[in-house]
Amino acid sequence: MRLRVREQGDEVHVDVDGVAGRQQRVLQALSECQRRAAGSQVSALSDVKIRAGANRMRIRMKGRDGLRLEASAIYQCLREALLERSAAGAPAPWIQSAPPAP
Q1: Three-state secondary structure readout of 34-99
Q2: How far is the C-alpha of 9 from the C-alpha of 25, rounded, in Å?
Q3: Residue 13: its H or E element
Q4: Most trustworthy range by pLDDT among 31-35, 77-81, 88-92
Q5: What pLDDT was estimated at residue 37?
Q6: What are 10's strand-pairing partners?
Q7: Quick one: 2-88 is in which CATH superfamily?
Q8: Tell me, what's the pLDDT at 38?
Q9: Are 62 and 13 in contact (CB under 8 A)?
Q10: Shortest CA distance to 17 belongs to which of 74, 56, 75?
Q11: For residues 22 and 64, what is the distance between their CA atoms, to the nearest angstrom?
Q12: pLDDT top residue among 63 and 14
């Protein structure tokens, strides 16, 4: 599985290749990363758009109400959840990241 996370304007784009049947796992990891990053603000975190194919997912996230999403924190969390957990065969610890102060 190949993971790429980048900022483009006020959005964060997540590209995952090689998912083949693991789309639900990717969505669960993304939801958990968002929940951990937002804490109690989970409902206001971001708008999410998802395009999924048989072996590829393209995800776009945009913070709501001026919230800036950190691509590096999203990448690190997804990497641990999807790649390192699979390699180690055990759950990886989640990285918690608070949104920047307004």
Answers
A1: HHHHHHHHHHHCEEEEEEECCCEEEEEEEECCCCCCCHHHHHHHHHHHHHHHHHHCCCCCCCCCCC
A2: 27
A3: strand 11-17
A4: 77-81
A5: 64
A6: none
A7: ACT domain (3.30.70.260)
A8: 59
A9: no
A10: 56
A11: 28
A12: 14
- 3-state class (DSSP) for residue 21: coil
Kindly state the tokens that stand for 79.
């990497």
Query: 28-49: buried (b, 16+ CB within 10 Å) or exposed (e) per residue?
Result: ebbeebbebbbeeeeeebbeee
Q: Cα–Cα distances in Å, from 54 out to 20, 31, 45?
A: 6, 20, 28
Q: Give the residues across from 12 on adjacent strands.
A: 7, 61
Three-state DSSP state, 17:
strand
Q: pTM of this prediction?
A: 0.73
Cβ atoms within 10 Å of 18's Cβ, excluding its own:
11
Distance in angstroms (rounded) separating the CA atoms of residues 9 and 32: 24
